[in-house]
Amino acid sequence: MGVKVVCRNKKAYHDYAIESKFEAGMVLSGPEVKSLRAGKANLKDGYVQIDDNGEAILYNVHISQYSHATHNPNDPLRVRKLLMHKRELKKLIGKLQEKGLAMIPLSIYFKDKGKAKVELGLARGKRQYDKRAALKKKQSDREVERAMRHDRDN
Fold this sequence. Notes:
Elements: E1 4-8, H1 10-15, E2 16-26, H2 30-37, E3 41-42, E4 47-50, E5 56-59, E6 62-63, E7 80-83, H3 86-96, E8 101-110, E9 116-125, H4 128-153
């Protein structure tokens, strides 16, 4: 069956250089899971911080309210706890102390057994000229691919 991707943070790859990736579970309510299954989530402004208790917390991730929920409508931007192993968290605490590193959500998806997971990236912000260079490289690669496809067809 594989993995069903709910949403991706495309802007993250543009604004940040991703150094490493981690997987974490999320503590969600029932209507939030239903809303995720319907694909109603947005990761654009999301970020992760580790609080004083050593727990990873997800901020600014918008999961829309489920339309058929009968009670307890959740706040779409509520703070959500992430589930990770202690040794992973300890490793992250050390890395997040470095200047310029941030932890951001890259995608939300469902695993085989129906568990909602979030893929996190340890990221370093790109400078404006890095973004322009990456965009230029992407366009040139696209043009080369188009030319090769055109030559192959003729």
